[in-house]
From TrEMBL:
InterPro entries: AAA+_ATPase, ABC_transp_ATP-bind, ABC_transporter-like_ATP-bd, Oligopep_ABC_C, P-loop_NTPase. This is ABC transporter ATP-binding protein. Gene3D superfamilies: P-loop containing nucleotide triphosphate hydrolases (3.40.50.300). One of its GO terms (molecular function) is ATP binding. Keywords: ATP-binding, Nucleotide-binding, Transport. It comes from the Bacteria. Residues 77-140 are annotated as: Disordered. It comes from Microbacterium elymi. Signal peptide: none annotated.
Length: 259
């Protein structure tokens, strides 16, 4: 179980500027096989929370824990283990082979044949064919540059890249926000399949409520750095309690076509 327990993040202003409380005593949790959505408008603190969960920035107060172990108390070896188990799928692409290369370095004295099998297996699990992989020039996807792949295929490759270290939790920050509807649906199907088939948990950071309604198991609603509401997806959408949640739902595009 990945947990944030009463985490706060304060960014100190320069000189006379006032400190900014980006995340204010937030608690969330996610486990393998769960699709947890964290929703809210821009500036609500979602991405800052994601960076704390990924151990990219430290919390000002509170704690981030994996299976009850506080990441601030972990030694270097434990931290490496944490980062293998909690991976990221960002909104923008990077080089597709970096985690796989890190794993190959770690397993250099292992079974080369097993490495080659994994090298092909992870892209397929992410929905990308390692031989073509959406590369418009027809070159292999592993090690290729992001500009050579179509946008939806890039996101599939980012998912495959995260899978290279066999994580238990993947944190996806606005991972489908820039995709058109049909491509977005395909990437979401990949994520849901991984959750159901491999038991990978997802923490899905988004402002896209129609997407959340389709894929999430549980939802946290953030507003001005705080979690104002949380609960099972159906309860959040059918009977929201907080006025801010009701405002978000009222402003979201309708999922039901009108005639």
């Amino acid at each position: 179980m990945l947990e944030a327990h009463n985490v706060t993040k304060i960014f100190r202003g320069r000189r006379s500027a006032s400190p900014v409380i980006a995340v204010d005593e937030v608690s969330v949790q996610a486990g393998p096989g769960e699709f947890v959505a964290i929703v809210g408008e821009s500036g609500s603190g979602k991405s800052t929370l994601a960076r704390m969960l990924l151990d990219l920035i430290p919390a000002t107060s509170g704690s981030v824990l994996l299976d009850g172990h506080d990441i601030t108390a972990m030694n270097r070896t434990d931290k490496r283990g944490y980062r293998r188990q909690v991976q990221a799928v960002p909104a923008g692409p990077g080089r597709v082979a970096e985690p796989a290369q890190a794993r190959r370095s770690r397993d250099r004295r292992g079974d080369p044949a097993a490495w080659d099998r994994d090298r092909q297996r992870h892209p397929r699990q992410g929905g990308a064919d390692p031989r073509t992989g959406g590369d418009v020039a027809g070159r292999p996807i592993l090690g290729s540059l992001p500009a050579r792949a179509q946008r939806g295929q890039r996101q599939r490759v980012l998912i495959a890249r995260a899978l290279a270290l066999d994580p238990r939790i993947i944190i996806a920050d606005e991972a489908v926000s820039a995709l058109d509807a049909s491509v977005k649906a395909g990437v979401l199907r990949v994520m849901v399949d991984l959750k159901d088939r491999l038991g990978v948990g997802f923490v899905f950071i988004t402002h896209d409520l129609p997407v959340v309604k389709k894929v999430a198991d549980r939802v946290y609603v953030m507003h001005r750095g705080k979690v104002v509401e949380e609960g099972p997806k159906d309860r959040i959408f059918d009977a929201p309690k907080d006025p801010y949640t009701r405002t978000l739902l009222a402003a979201a595009p309708s999922l039901t076509p009108t005639t």
